[in-house]
């Protein structure tokens, strides 16, 4: 079996070809993945509104955190170069973000836009205009605008206040008790950030637990926060003062997931991914792969600035199909595209339900995974809230597209490792949103460097 992967970038136009002759590819070695995207955004944002200096090591240098950095720089926050080993943020103090002279651009990043809105809405008498790329401008913003409006925020957007670009006139907000209909860390964090400047107790509940990086980091910065994990409820008492901290960002389990699946599905593979964040609100991918009988071991578990971390060892094994639904879904929401790839090589039929949120990510990931995996010869059925994936079908060479979605681009490259013939991934540069060095690490683990 000869596999060939062509990664085609649209702009600037270039192609990287990886060729694996002989009996197919095996992944070996030890790697580190870039810093956690969610933690990187939060470290920059809390650092920006804290008093004093925040120092960050291991910041993700992807396009998304760069968008966050640029937005806060435009509001008067001083940052050292993001390439420095330790990035320093000179916090302006809560309520002191300056009115920017131009539109704030969140690029492709939902986290930047939704979390930042909570801060902007609570800066009285300041005016902000915010936008993003075409993907972000089509993603629902009403999920944060509605609760913020209940707090008294003034936000206007296209299509009846649903879509960006948005205009914000900051206000002194009122506290609310908000029962979020979706398990979304972006919604929860937006409201908590708005609550920091709001007099009284602001509470958010969610139907099941989403990632809790905001809660952990807000506490570390000195916010008065009460978390009832069993009730999926968080309360912040405002107004508060945050103090700059030192943060070491662990590797992103969402990026590690590509290597976990690559190692699990390619015969002979044995690799270690070092220093990966294993916060229990993010480890659904480990639970799902272990339920599929993947051979994954957690080595050297430790805690790094308030977040659990471990080295993950994965070896090839025969996978079994599984059922993914319910509370597991928010704990692995970003990993479902790559898990769908794993399911193609499992014995039996895997079903994924309760995952309608995938339709409002960087692209409609249910529709796009169905169409692109089908292109490769897979059997996948699309449902309103998930997928049925039939394991055991041989993948063939074909041209697929990332739809400008980083996780689709990388999922397709990993599927290509087990395809017969040439798989061409169009718009592969999308990976740089969360994993700029993805292709180098792919080549390294495959022994091509
Ligand atoms: C994120 C939360 C998730 C996730 C996104 C990052 C965050 O989105 O999909 O990639 O950093 O808070 P939702 O909160 O919309 O589920």
Would you kindly provide a written description of the structure presented here, covering whatever features stand out?
With 449 residues, this protein is α/β, with parallel strands linked by helices. It folds into two domains: 2-35 and 250-445, Enolpyruvate transferase domain (UDP-n-acetylglucosamine1-carboxyvinyl-transferase, Chain, Alpha-beta prism); 37-248, UDP-n-acetylglucosamine1-carboxyvinyl-transferase, Chain. The protein has helices at 37-49, 63-73, 110-121, 142-150, 158-161, 185-196, 213-220, 253-265, 284-291, 336-344, 365-375, 406-416, 438-445; strands at residues 3-9, 14-20, 28-32, 51-57, 78-79, 86-92, 104-105, 127-131, 154-157, 163-169, 177-179, 200-205, 224-228, 233-238, 246-248, 270-277, 295-304, 307-315, 319-320, 323-324, 346-347, 349-352, 379-383, 386-390, 395-401, 419-426. The strands form seven sheets. A four-stranded mixed sheet has the order 2-1-26-25. A four-stranded mixed sheet has the order 3-16-18-17. The two termini are 21 Å apart. Bound molecules: shikimate-3-phosphate.
